[in-house]
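Final report, closing paragraph on structural work. Over the funding period we assembled a curated collection of sequence-structure pairs, and we close with a single example.
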Amino acid sequence: MKWFYLSILLTISISVSAQHEEADPTIYSPNRIVEVGLLGKATENLNKEVRAGDRLELRHIQKDQAGIFTVSLWANKQEVVTTLKRLERIEFEPADLYEFWKVQALRSGSYEQLARNGLQMNTRQGLAEEAFEYLQLLDNNAIRYEDEYLENYLNRLAYQIMPDDLDDGRPGRIRVKVVKDYIPNASMFPNGMMFITTGLLSILDSETELIAVMAHEIAHFAMDHAMLNINAAIKRQRSAEFWSGLATVVAAGAEAYMSAKNGRRFTGELTSGTSALASMIALQINVRMGLKYSREQELRADAGAVAVLNMIDVNPMALASALQKIKDHDIRLGLYRTLDSTGTHPHIDTRINGIAGSKYFP
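Its predicted structure, as stored:
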């Protein structure tokens, strides 16, 4: 039976105003320690104290005043300090989903970023505020699909994928919202707010496909890809330029679009105008919220999704079949966003083939 509901498009409106124009002071503080607490086994010799096959615990990652990254291990009844690079020689063994996502954050460079920049709470708080402003924008323009039963159902599915909050200090709890948009898409804000479009739900044929797509978005969240991208963008331009009232611009554009097309506010039905407005807003804010992921980030999120699907006994090929449905839908409508591999985003066939060939696939 076809799903009655929508497409996954996590759109985010971010304009962090004047108070966020100042550089986040946490970026410059020295001596950052990120507590980890993961058990594993050395696959190669790390140094004279830790040999291949030794059991160990990764306790924390630290950046000292000289900017040197080190890791603290507990192995052979002693503390061992080694370099961040040596973590590649350790195979971690997560006992549950809580530890699984910690491993994903570690492997993606998220913990290294936390050790380098700190939690950057000013920036994260600004992003959270803008996420709620975006949600309000959707509500004001009747673009959000409001169905409490559906949202509760989607949140229960998300809980199967990530049942616990991250314990590394990053704020954010997963909450799923639905956007009226024909285009099948999904994305996730840095504060854990996930948006799924009606277009996505309408083309998926099973709950497992929906869980698989949600797992991909949750992987982006656990790996902190949005903050990695935002930090890179801030480095490319002055902070004041980056945090420039985008939400106001988006809201004004939305009002102008609605006025030109309808002369009134939408009443709530899913129309081509509603979908076009949702897509227009999404295009403007995805870069601002760090959601324009690189090829590597998309493939990492796919690998993380496949691994967690195996862990919760969901067929990982559900992600491949969901991507195939998105591809078929785009071809039918003449939308080639997923088929363009000229930029940083991988071709959808690359993703589908990568899922089938993943080392996590049984």
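Residues 28 and 162 are 31 Å apart (CA to CA). Residues 1-29, 260-268 have pLDDT under 50 and may be disordered. We thank the funder for supporting this effort.
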